[in-house]
Amino acid sequence: MKTQNKHFSTRLLLALIMLCFAMTCSLNAVAKPDPKKNLIKEAAAAYEKDDFDTALAKFNEAYDQDPSKSSILYNIGRVYESKADYNNAISYYKQFISAPGSDENARKDALNRIKNLTETLEILSSTPPDAPQIKTGKAPKAAKTPKAPKAPKGEKKALEPGKCIDINNDPAEMLVNLNGVGDSTANKIIAARPYASIDDLSKIGGIGPAKINKMRDQICPIGGSAAAAAPAAPAEKAAADKAPKAPKAPKPPKAKKDDAPILDI
């Protein structure tokens, strides 16, 4: 009888010891949660708040602790895609597809994302067509006539055959070669520019119809001179305003998080 009681007591003691051991293990498991899972939860929460930098840091730290979790690679790709960093997003999607044990549906989604992002990058990197030249509306500058050597006072320089004097553009040194024009009158001609016709010279004191007739053959036709282009500036400006505008280069899309959730790990 005593022997049986002794065996019973021994068995009971062993059972109590095993029970205490099991409870201790359970308490330790509860007290020490998996740090990797905490990192993933923190990363997912940061992603939902659009805190992409924190989400990347947490996902990368979790993957460093357990590289077997390929779904973390997919989630990192999603974060980069939301940041509009398409090259890194494609890189992580490819790593996820190549990793063993990756979810089949997630693989298909990653392949589709790679295709779309690659097309987006091609569009952004394409060179826009050359823009047509747009006129500024300013009248073209008249070609400058080479300055003639200054003639001595009181001496008129004979014009070369076929040459004429442009009263809208030539300097005083050339204007003094007109019949009846001296230094003072030459400066007055310059001050009263532009002229629509040779007869407009009559608005200058000291120049009348008779004097204009004497110099008429020496003056370049107003309609053929370079200065005639000056009044046309408003018309050119109107044409420039109607000219088609150059197509704008496509702008990179702004970072945007899509509605699909990241993978639950």
Mind sketching the topology for me?
Blueprint: H1 2-31, H2 35-48, H3 52-65, H4 71-82, H5 86-98, H6 104-125, H7 172-175, H8 183-191, H9 209-215, H10 233-242
Helix pairs in contact: 2-3, 3-4, 4-5, 5-6
Tag the structure with descriptive keywords.
single chain; 265 residues; mainly alpha; Serine Threonine Protein Phosphatase 5, Tetratricopeptide repeat; DNA polymerase, domain 1; 10 helices; 0% strand
Sheet-strand content, in percent, reads: under 5%
Helix percentage range = 40-55%
Specify the biggest β-sheet: none
Structural class: mainly alpha
Mean pLDDT: 77
Determine the N-to-C terminus distance.
59 Å
Radius of gyration: 46 Å
Total number of strands: 0
CATH superfamily of the domain at 35-125: Tetratricopeptide repeat domain
CATH fold description of the domain at 35-125: Serine Threonine Protein Phosphatase 5, Tetratricopeptide repeat
Number of helices: 10
